[in-house]
Specification:
Helix content is 50%, strand content 27%. Strands 1, 2, 15, 16, 17 and 20 form a six-stranded antiparallel β-sheet that branches. Strands 3-10-13-12-11-14 form a six-stranded antiparallel barrel. It has a four-stranded antiparallel β-sheet with strand order 7-6-4-9, with no helix packed on it. The two termini are 15 Å apart.
Length: 554
């Protein structure tokens, strides 16, 4: 086999050499018989040249939510079936709430107990702290007072004696003044007021009687009689007031005399105590020592409040913990009604009524899914493009989408996401034979009820487009030393074969069928298909032979 391949390679080399000699001899004008079987003619025309990337993928919703319950338990009811359209917040399922209700009641009782304990600890702390501070303050005040008294006891004793004597003399003088001066004078004034009121009353009575007689005879008017009657009434009222004042004064004087005699007795007792206070120096010293001991004891009790503060903090922490647990239970209790977080269509229903489900709050990815809701208002197609194609694609490029299930319809979309790294770059080293893929997401423009998740869609991403440009099929263009050329037909030979001229051209956009002609040709020019490039074919065959040779060696 190796000898056969080598022979084929030598034959190809000879053919290339002969073709090159003929080309050189022919110059720019090549006759038809040098073309071999490549006699196809192409015309330069105007049209569209577009470059696109094609790939297939599955249609899927952009938003898909797995509905799980935060509460473990048995499914009591399911309210929707697969394919049902649900609104955000709509009730989908209900978990039997009996078990969680019992836990909520226990949690509420624990919260109340923790609150009571914390309140009791707070009140105990406040009361004891207040009492301890009061005791300390009282002990400090008593100690300071006794200290001053002990230091100045002789002066205090003397001053107390003098003060008691002065108070006793003042009480005696006050009683004397009341009995001999003030009370007699007040009684005289009140008695005079009573006599004056009696005189005015007698005068008003006589005047009223006189005017009454005159009125009966018609000598005075009724108005004068009414005035006399009013004066009589006023005089009677004044007399009663004076007499009442006389009675009140007698009672007031009696009380003042009793109080004055009581103050005199109190002053006499204070004077006797002051005279006997000479023994207070030793008593004050002992009281000072006792006050100091009480002050130290009060300060020691105040330091025990720190222990009560620690107990209060512990009770408050227990209250917060119980409240947090209760709130979590209330959240779970309220979530026995499983509701849809989005508006969409129920695409799958995993469980039936009576089945047990696990909670989705114990850890990431855990929990039993009940159903799946997808928002079909926004659909997308996930594509995996190779590294050559993904370099041409940009965000926002338009996409034409065809669906195998709907062959007569076309949909539009837009490139929304392009992965910054390939899939293989995050999974390990890439081998030389592996194909590097980049995830790309195409979002469909608008929604269509005919589209369903899972349908196969082919996406054509238009990366470049030029309209009304000069173009030629790719097979009409040849390559020489890295430059593009065509065999332009410039006439016919004597035997009617096309006569061509090699023209180097400038090419713009290329796709799988056409290439844009920028320079070198005009619309309507005709070109002949160029001959096959020998060296490229030879290299390909030699590479295949080399690969076969290496396989045989292995």
């Amino acid at each position: 086999m190796r000898k056969g391949l080598v022979g084929c390679g030598i034959a190809l080399v000879l053919l290339v050499m002969v073709g090159g000699v003929l080309w050189i001899l022919g110059g720019k004008s090549v006759r038809a018989n040098t073309e071999g079987t490549n006699g196809r003619i192409y015309t330069v025309e105007r049209g569209e040249v577009s470059v696109e990337v094609s790939e297939s993928g599955a249609i899927e919703p952009v938003r898909v939510v797995e509905i799980k319950s935060r509460v473990p338990g048995r499914i009591e009811a399911l309210f929707v079936d697969e394919g049902a359209l649900v609104e955000q917040g709509q009730l989908l399922a209900r978990i039997d709430p009996r078990e969680i209700r019992q836990q909520v009641e226990q949690g509420s009782a624990q919260v109340e107990s923790a609150k009571a304990n914390a309140e009791r600890a707070r009140l105990a702390l406040e009361i004891e702290a207040q009492q301890a501070r009061i005791r300390v303050r009282q002990a400090e005040l008593r100690y300071e007072q006794l200290k001053r008294e002990a230091e100045s006891q002789p002066q205090i004793t003397q001053a107390s004696l003098q003060s008691a004597e002065a108070a006793y003399k003042s009480a005696q003088e006050n009683l004397r003044l009341l009995e001999t001066v003030k009370h007699p004078q007040e009684r005289t004034e009140v008695a005079n007021a009573v006599r004056d009121a009696q005189a005015r009353l007698q005068e008003a009575q006589r005047n009223y009687e006189r005017l009454t007689r005159l009125h009966e005879k018609g000598y005075v008017s009724r108005q004068q009689l009414d005035s006399a009657e009013t004066a009589l009434t006023l005089a009677q009222s004044q007399l009663r007031a004076a007499e009442q004042r006389q009675q009140q004064l007698a009672e007031q004087q009696r009380i003042e005399l009793e109080e004055a005699r009581a103050r005199l007795e109190s002053a006499r007792a204070d004077l006797e105590r002051a005279r006997a206070s000479a023994v207070q120096d030793e008593i004050k010293r002992k009281q000072l020592e006792s006050a100091l001991a009480e002050l130290e004891s009060a300060r020691a009790q105040l330091r025990t409040i720190e222990m009560r503060q620690a107990e209060l903090r512990q009770a408050q922490a227990s209250e917060k913990q119980a409240l947090s647990q209760y709130q979590n239970l209330m959240i779970q209790f309220n979530e026995t009604d499983v509701r849809s977080p989005i508006r969409g269509v129920v695409t799958r229903r995993y469980r039936e009524v009576g089945e047990l489900v696990m909670s989705g709050t114990t850890g990431f990815g855990e929990g039993t899914p009940i159903m799946q809701v997808a928002d079909l208002a926004q659909m997308r197609v996930r594509l995996n493009l190779n590294e050559l194609d993904v370099a041409k694609v940009k965000l926002g490029m338009p996409v034409e989408i065809t669906v195998d299930a709907l062959p007569n319809r076309k949909f539009r979309g837009t490139v929304r996401k392009i992965a910054p790294a390939s899939q293989q770059s995050t999974t390990g080293q890439v081998s030389a034979l592996s194909v590097v893929k980049f995830p790309v997401e195409v979002y469909l423009d608008g929604s269509d009820p005919a589209l369903r998740p899972g349908m196969t869609a082919r996406c054509r991403i238009l990366t470049a487009r030029k309209q009304n440009v000069l173009r030629l099929p790719l097979e009409a263009i040849g390559t020489e030393n890295g430059r593009d050329y065509v065999l332009k037909i410039v006439g016919n030979t004597a035997d009617g074969a096309p006569r061509t001229e090699k023209v180097f051209i400038k090419v713009g956009l290329r796709n799988t069928r056409h290439a844009e002609i920028l320079e070198g040709l005009r619309e309507g020019d005709k070109v002949l298909k160029p001959p096959f490039s020998g060296p490229q074919r030879r290299q390909f065959e030699l590479n295949e032979g080399e690969g076969e040779r290496r396989r045989e060696e292995r």
